[in-house]
Design goal:
The protein has about 400 residues and is an alpha/beta fold. The chain has 2 domains: about 230 residues, Spore Coat Polysaccharide Biosynthesis Protein SpsA, Chain A (Alpha-Beta Complex), CATH 3.90.550; about 120 residues, no CATH class. It has a 7-stranded mixed β-sheet, with helices on both faces. Strand 1, helix 2 and strand 2 form a beta-alpha-beta unit. Helix 11 packs across helix 13.
Length: about 400
C-alpha cells in the first residue's frame, strides 16, 4: 500500500526508500499518538501473512501502528512483511530458556509498542473492514480491560471440516462466553488469534513474560487479567475477524496436539466419553441393519447357520417404539452437541460421522505428548512445564487495582 493511502487510514507508515535499521526494525515515520498497537507474531507464515497485513493496513476509524515480529522464520515471512510500507518489522529476540516461541515474539513486539491498547493477533487472521475501531469501541463501552474474539473458522480440507465443529463445540461448553465475560464466574479464557488488552493492564499483570513457559498463553493471560479483578469480554465474532488455522492434516494434528490436553482438564475421560457418544449415536441406528447382514451371511456360511435366528431376533428390535426412540435420541444428541460450534449443517454431519473419533484421537495424542514432554510445534519441541490444568478454579474476591475495571 502506498504511503499516502496508509497515512489517510491513520496507520504508521515508512518513509519511501528508507533502509532497515541495525536493530532489524524497518525504519518508520511514526504517527504522534496511536491508540492501538497491532502486534503480529509470525514464524514461517508466508502462506497467510500477506492477507493478514493487507486486512490490517486497510482499517479505518482509529489511529494505530502495525508491528510484525519475525520469529526467526526460514521462509519468505520477513520479505512479505517488509513489502508493506505501513508495517514496522522486528526480529524476535533470541529465545530464552524456558520461554515458548510465541511468548518471546509477542514480548518483543510489546516492548516496541507505543499505544494505550495492544492487539495481539495471529498471522493467519483476516480482519474485516472497520473491525479494529469497532473492537476498541466495544471494549471501552463495556468497561473491558481485555477483549477477545473467537474468529469465524474457515475450513477447506476434509479433516478441517470434520474436526473443527467437534473441537469448537467442546470449547464452547468448557469456556462459555457468557461465563467468561461474567466477572462473578471463575472461568477465564481468551482466543490468542485476537486479544485486545489495555497496555496499563498488560504491564500490571506482567505481560507475556509472566507466563513465559505457558504453551496456552491466551488462556493464561486471560486468567491473570480476571484474577486481578479486571473485566474480560469474550465472544464469537464472525462480524470482526476470520481465520484458517491449519492448512493440512499434519498442521491440524500437531496444532491440536499442542493445545487440547491443556484446554480440557481431563482429556482422557473426554476422549472416552466422545467415543461412547459417537458409538451410541451411530451404532444404535445401524444395529438392525448390521444384524440383517449377519442373518444373510448365516444363510450362506454353514458355520454361522446356528446364529441365523439370533441375528433375526436382534434385527427385529427396529419394530419396537422404544428402540426407535433411544436410537433417535442418541443420534440427535450428537448433532445438537455440535450446534454450539456455529458451523453449517454439512460440517456438522462430517463432525458427527468422522470428527468425533478424530477428536478423541487428538485428545489422547495430546495427553501422551504432554506427559512425555515432547510437544512439537513449528520446528521447536517443548518439554514439561508447570502450566496448571485448565479446570476452572474459584477466585478469591479480587480487588481491582487503580488500573482495574472501568465499569
Amino acid at each position: 500500500m502506498g504511503t499516502t493511502e496508509a497515512t489517510e487510514n491513520n496507520v504508521e507508515t515508512a518513509a519511501p526508500g528508507c533502509p532497515a535499521e541495525q536493530s532489524s526494525a524497518t525504519s518508520m515515520r511514526p504517527i504522534p499518538h496511536p491508540q492501538v498497537s497491532v502486534i503480529v507474531p509470525a514464524r514461517n507464515e508466508q502462506a497467510c501473512l500477506a492477507d493478514c497485513i493487507q486486512s490490517l493496513v486497510a482499517q479505518q476509524g482509529v489511529a494505530f501502528e502495525i508491528i510484525v515480529v519475525d520469529d526467526h522464520s526460514t521462509d519468505r515471512t520477513r520479505e512479505i512483511a517488509t513489502s508493506f510500507s505501513a508495517v514496522k518489522v522486528l526480529e524476535a529476540a533470541p529465545l530464552p530458556n524456558g520461554w515458548t516461541g510465541k511468548n518471546n515474539a509477542v514480548t518483543t513486539g510489546a516492548k516496541a509498542a507505543r499505544a494505550e491498547w495492544l492487539l495481539f493477533t495471529d498471522a493467519d487472521t483476516v480482519h474485516l473492514p472497520g473491525s479494529l475501531a469497532a473492537a476498541l469501541k466495544e471494549a471501552q463501552e463495556n468497561g473491558a480491560e481485555l477483549l477477545s474474539y473467537s474468529p469465524e473458522q474457515i475450513a477447506v480440507t476434509f479433516w478441517e471440516m470434520a474436526t473443527l465443529p467437534v473441537v469448537f463445540a467442546e470449547l464452547a461448553r468448557q469456556y462459555s462466553p457468557s461465563k467468561v465475560s461474567d466477572p462473578a464466574s471463575p472461568i477465564a479464557a481468551a482466543n490468542g488469534q485476537y486479544i485486545l488488552i489495555r497496555r496499563e493492564t498488560y504491564d500490571a499483570i506482567g505481560g507475556h513474560a509472566a507466563i513465559a513457559n505457558n504453551i496456552l498463553e491466551d488462556v493464561a493471560l486471560a486468567r491473570a487479567v480476571k484474577t486481578s479483578g479486571r473485566k474480560i469480554l469474550f465472544r464469537y465474532a464472525t462480524d470482526r475477524v476470520r481465520t484458517r488455522m491449519y492448512r493440512n492434516y499434519r498442521q491440524l494434528r500437531d496444532g491440536w496436539t499442542k493445545n487440547l490436553a491443556l484446554l480440557f482438564p481431563n482429556p482422557g475421560q473426554l476422549a472416552v466419553k466422545t467415543l461412547i457418544l459417537w458409538g451410541l449415536g451411530w451404532g444404535l441406528m445401524f444395529w438392525p441393519f448390521i444384524m440383517l447382514i449377519g442373518a444373510e451371511l448365516s444363510d450362506q456360511i454353514r458355520s454361522l447357520a446356528p446364529l441365523h435366528h439370533t441375528f433375526m431376533a436382534l434385527a427385529g428390535v427396529i419394530k419396537h417404539w422404544w428402540w426407535i426412540a433411544i436410537s433417535s435420541v442418541a443420534f440427535v444428541n450428537n448433532f445438537s452437541r455440535l450446534k454450539k460450534a456455529n458451523f453449517d449443517l454439512a460440517m456438522e454431519w462430517l463432525g458427527a460421522l468422522f470428527g468425533m473419533p478424530m477428536f478423541a484421537y487428538l485428545l489422547l495424542r495430546s495427553k501422551r505428548a504432554h506427559a512425555n514432554g515432547s510437544v512439537a510445534w513449528k520446528g521447536r519441541t517443548y518439554g514439561p512445564t508447570d502450566t496448571p490444568k485448565n479446570a476452572p478454579t474459584k477466585l478469591s474476591s479480587p480487588t481491582p487495582t487503580p488500573a482495574g475495571r472501568l465499569s
